[in-house]
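Q: C-alpha cells for this one, please.
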Amino acid sequence: MPPISPQQPSDFLLQDDLDLLDETELRRLVSEVDAFAGNGKGLRVSALTFEQWQTLLMRRLPPSMRRGQHDYIYVLPDRNDPQHLLFSPGAVQGINEGSRPMQHAVISAAVRAIPTPLKGPLRKGINEIVLEACGERLGMELFGRTYPQESQFVRALLRILVAEYGYRESEWALEMRRNPERCLFALRKTKFAPTWASYIRQDPALAEELKAAPNKRKYLTDKLLDPGFSLTSPFGKLTAAAAVAYLESLEQERQDGPR
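A: Here is the predicted structure, written as C-alpha cells:
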C-alpha cells in the first residue's frame, strides 16, 4: 500500500490483494464485539504499516505528545468515520500473541465505536458495563475502570430494571445502549419512580420543575437524556442517592424475607 498522502487523511483501507492472514485474529475479535454489542455490520478495521501509523500520529497528536506514542497508543478512530478503527502494527502483534491488555484495548475501542444515542455520563457508564459483558461473552475478564462513577450510576439503574422485570444486567445494558428511550420508559414504570420523585423534590428548583411537568415520571427520565445532564448536578446527585437507597431497601426486604 502506498504511503498516506496529506491530501487523503482518511484513506487507510487495505487493498484486497494484500495478505491479511496476520490480521485475522484482530478482525475476528472486532467482528465478535460488533456482532454482540452492535449489529454486526457497522465496524470497519484497517491495520496500518509502521510508516502509516507514524504518519497518522504526526497528524493527530500535538508535537509535545508525539515522541514515543507508538509504544502505547494502538488504535485510533478515523475522524471521517468513527466506526472505522485504525490499528497499529503493535495491536496486530499483541492480539496474535494473546496479550490481555491488548485484547482489552481492542475490545474497548470497538465498544466505543459502536453508535449509541446515549451521550455524556450515561454513554461513558454503559460503555464500561458493555465492555465487561463482552469479556464475559468472549471468556475474558475485562473490567471498565476509566469511568467508575458513571458506571456505578448506570449499573444502579440497570439493577433496578433487573429487580423489577428480571433478565440479566448485561441484557439490559445492551438494550440501554441500543434503545435508551425504551429502557428509560421501563424505568419510569418501576416501583422506584416514586422514591426517585421524592428525592428530586428535596431541591427547590427541581421540585418546581417536577410540579409543573405534565408527566412527572417522563420528566425524570427526560432529564437523564438531556444533553446537559451531569452526575455532579443536583438532579444527578439526587438520582444517584435515590437509586442507592432504593436498592438498599430491596436488599433489606430480601434479607428480612416474607412476613
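A few notes: The first helix runs from residue 24 to 37. The first strand starts at residue 44 and ends at 47.
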